Automatic annotation (TrEMBL):
Domain of life: Eukaryota
Protein name: Pectinesterase inhibitor domain-containing protein
GO MF annotations, alphabetized: enzyme inhibitor activity
Keywords of this entry: Signal
Organism listed in the record: Setaria viridis
InterPro entries, per database record: Invertase/methylesterase_inhib, Pectinesterase_inhib_dom
Length: 184
């Protein structure tokens, strides 16, 4: 789920450039379902995730606002994975040999969460220069978690689900064919 959320956040931010670079100027509003169509392309899973992420969004907003809300949703997903890992560690049910891998995952997901917090701040301040790199860094941090986990462990299953949630899409995704209507 976290990977799909990250993919969607990146796709929403990428869509901002297609909208004409007018984000944060309160002139170029879009309905949330149009933002989801643009960000998800033909991927039903991403469209459904976008709907879930933006269910409390305003009916019409700038694309940067939708991307910020999606980043917040993603950050909550990361926090949920970290909380689950910490509960498993505290419960003592993790074999001693896997404890360092679980601690590594907590650290890496925390790094991914910090990247998403930066994404939210940059979107709020209309500073888009480092967004793509922040998405890439967040994805790399999340994926590095799984490298040390033994197959079959609970956290390995959560991490695998995060990574398998959707096909790889990033901020450089080709969205030039996406259609968009301006609200009157």
């Amino acid at each position: 789920m976290a990977r799909a959320a990250l993919i969607l956040v990146a796709a929403l931010a990428a869509a901002m450039s297609i909208v004409g670079g007018e984000a944060c100027n309160q002139r170029d509003l879009m309905k949330w379902n149009e933002a989801c169509l643009m960000a998800a392309g033909n991927t039903v899973e991403l469209y459904n995730l976008c709907q879930e992420m933006l269910q409390h969004a305003p009916d019409a907003a700038e694309m940067s606002e939708y991307a910020r809300l999606a980043a917040r949703f993603t950050n909550r997903s990361y926090s949920g994975t970290v909380a689950a890992a910490q509960r498993l560690l505290a419960g003592g049910s993790i074999p001693a040999g896997q404890r360092p891998a679980y601690r590594h995952c907590v650290e890496r997901y925390s790094t991914a969460s910090a990247q998403m917090a930066s994404v939210m701040a940059e979107l709020a301040s209309c500073d888009y220069g480092r967004l793509k790199q922040r998405y890439i860094d967040a994805k790399a941090a999340m994926e590095s978690c799984g490298r040390e986990l033994a197959a079959g462990t609970p956290l390995a299953a959560m991490n695998a689900a995060d990574k398998a949630a959707a096909p790889l899409l990033f901020a450089d995704r080709d969205m030039t064919g996406a259609r968009r209507r301006r609200l009157k």
